[in-house]
């Protein structure tokens, strides 16, 4: 990217937030344009500054995952990353279902966080490897326990194309742009895909894409 990646950092622990801001500000190509401590701060800052990437904490006041959805509704071009201590599968799934592009644990080193930010800003998705592995194991156990089997071979060519983009972390709006479809049309296709695969949401569908169709899932490298 030719210009600096503009960032908003929102975390309700001031000392930690200041450390993150200081670390990011020391790197060329990154510019922190705002910081706050609550969900409302996240929305207001993103509306005011229209950053390229917003880093939000899951457990901040007002809820980080709810804030992510509000930010993306208000500023669709801003990519949202969660920077959190939460390793709960439900938090990861809920965040990804909201359209969050990155889920990073707070133990990450500064240089690695910078690298992830660059990847997310360029359009990639990222989930901490330990969490991605845990989600896959959890899904396999659930499917085995429920006696469920996928029917990926029943997908049409169009549905496979949509599922491939889902596995790369694309939102319905982004899929529509890629395939020249209306967002509501993509939603209609997604309903059929979930039914055919016997899964509950797009995160599970992305894992099935890897297991059944050999597609690349949300990036965990």
Give a verbal description of the structure.
With 221 residues, this protein is an alpha/beta fold. Helix content is 54%, strand content 13%. The protein has ten helices and six strands, in the order E-H-E-H-E-H-E-H-E-H-E-H-H-H-H-H. The protein has helices spanning 14-25, 39-49, 64-74, 89-98, 110-121, 129-146, 157-167, 172-179, 183-197, 202-213, and strands at 5-10, 30-36, 53-56, 79-84, 102-105, 126-127. It has a six-stranded parallel β-sheet with strand order 2-1-3-4-5-6, sandwiched between helices. Mean pLDDT is 83; it is low at 216-221.
Order of helices and strands: EHEHEHEHEHEHHHHH
Distance between the termini: 21 Å
- Arrangement of strands in the largest sheet: 2-1-3-4-5-6
Instruction: Detail the poorly predicted runs.
Output: 216-221
Number of strands: 6
Relative helix content = 40-55%
So what's the overall shape? Answer: globular
Mean pLDDT: 83
Task: Determine the strand fraction and express it as a percent band.
Answer: 5-15%
Structural class, judged by helices and strands?
alpha/beta
Biggest beta sheet summary: 6 strands, parallel
Number of H- or I-type helical stretches: 10
Instruction: Specify Rg, calculated over alpha carbons.
Output: 18 Å
In short:
The protein is of the alpha/beta class and 221 residues long.
Summary keywords:
221 residues, alpha/beta, six-stranded parallel beta sheet, 10 helices, 54% helix, disordered C terminus
List the topology elements.
Layout: E1 5-10, H1 14-25, E2 30-36, H2 39-49, E3 53-56, H3 64-74, E4 79-84, H4 89-98, E5 102-105, H5 110-121, E6 126-127, H6 129-146, H7 157-167, H8 172-179, H9 183-197, H10 202-213
Parallel strand pairs: 1-2, 1-3, 3-4, 4-5, 5-6
Helix pairs in contact: 2-3, 3-4, 7-10, 8-9
């Amino acid at each position: 990217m030719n210009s600096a990646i503009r960032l908003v950092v929102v975390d309700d622990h001031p000392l930690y937030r200041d450390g993150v801001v200081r670390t990011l500000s020391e790197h060329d190509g990154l510019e922190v344009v705002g910081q706050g401590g609550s969900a409302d701060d996240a929305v207001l800052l993103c509306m005011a500054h229209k950053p390229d990437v917003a880093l939000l904490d899951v457990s901040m006041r007002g809820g980080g995952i709810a804030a992510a959805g509000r930010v993306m509704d208000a500023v669709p071009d801003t990519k949202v990353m969660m920077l959190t201590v939460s390793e709960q599968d439900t938090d990861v799934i809920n965040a990804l279902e909201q359209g969050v592009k990155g889920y990073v644990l707070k133990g990450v080193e500064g240089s690695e966080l910078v690298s992830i930010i660059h990847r997310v800003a360029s359009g990639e998705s990222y989930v901490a490897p330990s969490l991605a592995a845990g989600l896959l194991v959890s899904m396999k156990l659930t499917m085995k326990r429920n006696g469920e089997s996928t029917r990926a071979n029943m997908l049409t060519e169009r549905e496979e194309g949509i599922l491939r983009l889902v596995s790369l972390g694309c939102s319905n709006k982004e899929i529509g742009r890629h395939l020249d479809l209306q967002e509501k049309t993509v939603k209609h296709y997604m309903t059929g895909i979930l039914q055919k695969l016997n899964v509950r949401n797009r995160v599970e569908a992305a894992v099935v894409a890897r297991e059944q169709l050999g597609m690349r899932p949300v990036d965990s490298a």
